[in-house]
């Protein structure tokens, strides 16, 4: 089954065409962010006369919200990995009937709509004073990060040979030391992958930002975009500039995670 | 599993008393360590999923409103919240919209996703790179996609209407997000765009699992082209496909960001779904009891599909 060179070139051309159609909105977002007037009525297909006025405005009005989003997403990654990594190891290596119960709970948790979590957290946060707070949003974002990180890390740790940890145990290392000194370093790539996805989830969070903040103090950039949509739709270049800035983590993940997923697979193949 | 070594002494373990005690202590310490590995995650899952589910069940049978925060009073009202939300004139419309949104989204996401996965299975230069770049729409924050599509779909200045009019396909600008008869179609269209990459990725990995030998054997029997798809590809893809479809329902039925960002449920409630209704009851009207009742109806529907999902995965594993 060897396709001729010409036929493969045609496939590549069709593939490029499909990609161009699928990514047109992303291109349009960048194009609109660079248009001078801010009015898409006059926007051409190419930003022939690019201006960064939209970005200047986005940074001055949304810069603070971007920083808030970075803090929340970073905090969520740290908390999620601290909680998920030991649990993923336990679910991959320990023999117990609780393992399948734990996995079932993680599966079922995916069926719970975010609005249910927001509803309950709002009333609880109101009592304990976590509304409009960064820790409150970090905790809420863990609801998407923890189950996902556990599943990713567990599937990697399932492939760890038991002899690795046993060797360390024979040398007198306790369970915790073996985990920290051996399992975590080997799992580096899967930790990075889980961390990148968790960062992206909480960076993208809109529902918790919308429901668990009631005044302006703590406002992630997703909420900033939403408020733009309510009030600023005459200034599309500032809205789209903010959208482009908010898309950066997705683009970084697309490039970085590719590398780490590939590296992890290669490492597994070599050993 | 916890064993009690002192009750079943082997020759190895029946050493002098202090050694046995030390060994037992170490064993107990180890069991405790194992518990500590899982405890933070278990607590987090209880706080972030267990508590909300129980709390929603309780709130749905209480008169839980903004007043509750000041008075601390949330009187029990039985099933009154449920009858209120179901009798509301918007409920049937929200149900129909939820069904149309879910079925429309999934049918096209899956159909287009399958076509693209089959295309990208061919080997050609840049194929892998193009396929991974295709993931971008799925990775973007939903509110970013909503904002971008809002600008594209704008009635007077949006690029879609300008292109359609320029090509002579329509004479007047289409009020994509401003007309009750078109808005739901537009919102479904955007959601299809967001979901295609995920479907392509899962279906592609499903296709990659099908052994090449099957096709080689099939070729001898004349199973190529459509017949190859009908008798080799589809039967082998069915397990992945059914899991994907059920996952799709569970994720799509609760979508909120896209609808709020594009239309806010309007115009004239044309894009209200159970999820947006639940959000409005709780966080716009501050009737948390009614919002909880609606989201419990949402959970019940999801749960029906969750059971279907678990049965499908089990069968997929068994096969």
Search tags:
heterodimer; A: 271 residues; mainly alpha; MetI-like fold; 11 helices; 0% strand; disordered C terminus; B: 319 residues; 14 helices; disordered N terminus
Structural class by sheet pairing and helices of chain B? mainly alpha
Unreliable segments of 5+ consecutive residues of chain A:
264-271
In DSSP terms (H or I, runs of 4 or more residues), the helix count of chain A works out at 11
Rounded to the nearest angstrom, the radius of gyration of chain A is: 23 Å
Calculate the mean pLDDT score of chain A and round it: 87
Q: What's the number of domains of chain B?
A: 1
Task: Enumerate the spans of chain B where pLDDT stays under 50 for 5 or more consecutive residues.
Answer: 1-14
Q: What sequence of helices (H) and strands (E) makes up the elements of chain B?
A: HHHHHHHHHHHHHH
The CATH class of chain A, by name, is Mainly Alpha
Oligomer status: heterodimer
Task: Give the full name of the CATH homologous superfamily of chain A.
Answer: MetI-like
Radius of gyration of chain B: 27 Å
Number of strand elements of chain A = 0
Shape of chain B: flat
Secondary-structure content class of chain A: mainly alpha
Number of domains of chain A: 1
Helix content of chain B: over 70%
CATH superfamily of chain B: MetI-like
């Amino acid at each position: 089954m060897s396709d001729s060179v010409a036929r493969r070139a045609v496939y590549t051309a069709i593939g490029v065409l499909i990609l161009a159609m699928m990514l047109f909105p992303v291109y349009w977002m960048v194009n609109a962010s660079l248009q001078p007037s801010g009015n898409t009525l006059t926007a051409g297909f190419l930003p022939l006369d690019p201006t960064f006025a939209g970005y200047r405005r986005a940074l001055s009005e949304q810069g603070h919200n971007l920083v808030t989003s970075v803090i929340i997403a970073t905090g969520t990654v740290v908390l999620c990995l601290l909680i998920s990594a030991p649990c993923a190891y336990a679910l991959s290596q320990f023999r117990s009937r609780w393992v399948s119960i734990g996995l079932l709970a993680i599966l079922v948790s995916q069926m719970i709509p975010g609005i249910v979590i927001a509803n309950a957290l709002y009333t609880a946060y109101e009592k304990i004073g976590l509304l409009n707070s960064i820790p409150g949003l970090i905790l809420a974002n863990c609801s998407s990060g923890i189950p996902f990180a556990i599943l990713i890390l567990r599937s990697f740790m399932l492939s760890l040979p038991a002899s690795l940890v046993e060797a360390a145990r024979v040398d007198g290392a306790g369970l915790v030391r073996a985990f920290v000194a051996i399992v975590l370093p080997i799992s580096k790539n899967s930790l990075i992958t889980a961390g990148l996805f968790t960062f992206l989830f909480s960076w993208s969070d809109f529902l918790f930002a919308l429901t668990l903040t009631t005044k302006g103090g703590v406002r992630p950039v997703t909420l900033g975009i939403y408020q733009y949509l309510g009030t600023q739709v005459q200034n599309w270049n500032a809205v789209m500039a903010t959208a482009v800035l908010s898309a950066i983590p997705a683009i970084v993940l697309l490039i970085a995670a590719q590398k780490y997923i590939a590296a992890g697979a290669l490492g597994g193949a070599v050993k | 599993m916890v064993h009690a070594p002192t009750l079943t002494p082997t020759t190895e373990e029946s050493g002098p008393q202090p050694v046995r005690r030390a060994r037992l202590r170490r064993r107990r310490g180890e069991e405790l360590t194992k518990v500590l590995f899982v405890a933070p995650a278990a607590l987090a899952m209880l706080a972030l999923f267990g508590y909300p589910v129980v709390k929603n069940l309780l709130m749905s049978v209480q008169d839980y409103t903004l007043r509750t925060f000041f008075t601390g009073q949330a009187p029990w009202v039985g099933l009154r919240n449920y009858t209120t939300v179901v009798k509301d004139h918007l409920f049937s419309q929200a149900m129909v919209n939820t069904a149309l949104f879910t079925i429309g989204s999934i049918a096209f996401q899956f159909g287009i996703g399958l076509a693209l996965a089959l295309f990208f299975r061919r080997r050609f230069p840049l194929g892998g790179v193009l396929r991974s770049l295709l993931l971008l729409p799925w990775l973007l924050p939903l509110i970013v996609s909503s904002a971008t599509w809002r600008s594209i779909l704008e009635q007077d200045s949006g690029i879609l209407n300008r292109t359609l009019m320029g090509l002579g396909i329509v004479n007047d600008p289409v009020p994509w997000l401003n007309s009750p008869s078109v808005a739901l179609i537009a919102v479904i269209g955007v959601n299809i765009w967001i979901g295609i990459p995920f479907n392509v990725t899962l279906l592609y990995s499903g296709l990659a699992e099908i052994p090449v030998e099957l096709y080689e054997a099939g070729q001898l029997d004349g199973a190529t082209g459509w017949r190859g798809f009908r008798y080799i590809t589809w039967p082998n893809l069915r397990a992945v496909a059914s899991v994907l479809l059920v996952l799709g329902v569970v994720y799509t039925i609760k979508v909120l960001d896209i609808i709020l960002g594009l239309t806010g449920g309007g115009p004239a409630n044309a894009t209200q779904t159970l999820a947006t209704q639940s959000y409005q009851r709780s966080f716009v009207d501050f009737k948390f009891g009614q919002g909880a009742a609606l989201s419990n109806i949402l959970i019940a529907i999801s749960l029906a599909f969750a059971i279907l999902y678990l049965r499908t995965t089990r069968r997929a594993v068994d096969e």
